[in-house]
Amino acid sequence: MIAIIDYDAGNIKSVVKAMEYLSIDYVFTRSKEEILKADKLILPGVGSFGSAMERLNDMGLTEIIRSSVSEGKPFLGICLGLQLLFEDSEESPGVKGLSVLKGHIRKIPVGEYKKIPHMGWNSLSLKGDGRLFKGIKGDPFVYFVHSFYLDADDKDIVKATTQYNVNIDASVEQGNVFACQFHPEKSSDTGLKMLRNFAEL
Predict the structure, then answer these.
(1) What are the two backbone dihedrals, phi and then psi, of residue 27, each rounded to the nearest 5 degrees?
(2) Which of 91, 173, 180, 183 is catalytic?
(3) Which of 3.40.50.880, 3.90.226.10, 1.10.3720.10, 1.10.10.10 is the CATH number of 2-199?
(4) Would you call 180 a catalytic residue per the annotation?
(5) Which residue of the set 87, 112, 185, 200 is catalytic?
(6) Beta-carbon contacts of residue 141 (< 8 Å; ≥ 6 apart)
(7) For 131-159, what is the mean pLDDT?
(8) Measuring CA to CA, which residue among 61, 49, 166, 169 is closest to residue 114?
């Protein structure tokens, strides 16, 4: 059973629909008991880093997430869910993230031809042997919607990058923790394959 964590962030229901399409057993919940009982966890979402951390703290989910990760439970962060796994964000100065992984969320710089937010399809450059990308070849195209990006401290955990005015650490993997800045649930067959890979860990 996969628990999709409900913390009132935007765009969560698209992940629910993807689970239903793939016939993957899931529960959409904010219940601590259900989250603790689940075999795997997904933290999706779109929204503000600071507001999201405030909601996770107020709901008592911050320590539940940290303890689940430390116990080795497979965990997938998507978009804002990736950003929250790290230490802090330029979007919300002074707000501490979950600090499960080391790195910082920075604002995408303005480029001559590319507007912010970064919205649309971009190709990934795959690095190494990321388990989320098992069976995926070449430079797959995936769907992004974001104005801030990950700059991971340890580049060895980065399993995919993309370019949009700056080099973006688009997907990371460390032990039982997986995360992607893009939206696999909106990335056609390639993204659904990633979700299936996570479900089958």
Answers:
(1) -135, 135
(2) 183
(3) 3.40.50.880
(4) no
(5) 185
(6) 121, 122, 123, 124, 187, 190
(7) 96
(8) 166
Q: Which two tokens stand for residue 63?
A: 């320590």
Phi and psi at residue 171, to the nearest 5°: -155, 140
3-state secondary structure of 70: helix
- pTM for the model stands at 0.96
* Encoded tokens for 18: 């993807």
* Residue 185 annotated as catalytic: yes
Do the Cβ atoms of 179 and 77 come closer than 8 Å? Answer: yes
Query: In sequence order, what are the residues at sequence separation of 6 or more whose Cβ sits closer than 8 angstroms to the Cβ of residue 173?
Result: 130, 131, 132, 157, 159, 179
**Kindly report the CA angle at 114 between 111 and 118, in degrees rounded to 5?**
110
- Domain positions in the chain: 2-199
**Residue tagged active-site, from 63, 79, 104, 118:** 79
How far apart are the C-alpha atoms of 83 and 181, rounded to whole Å? 8
Strands (E) across 47-183 are located at: 75-78, 88-89, 103-107, 118-123, 125-126, 141-146, 148-152, 158-163, 167-174, 177-180
Catalytic, 112? Answer: no
What pLDDT shows up at residue 117? 92
pLDDT at 114 over 90: no
Q: Residue 129 pLDDT > 80, yes or no?
A: yes
- 176 pLDDT above the threshold of 90: yes
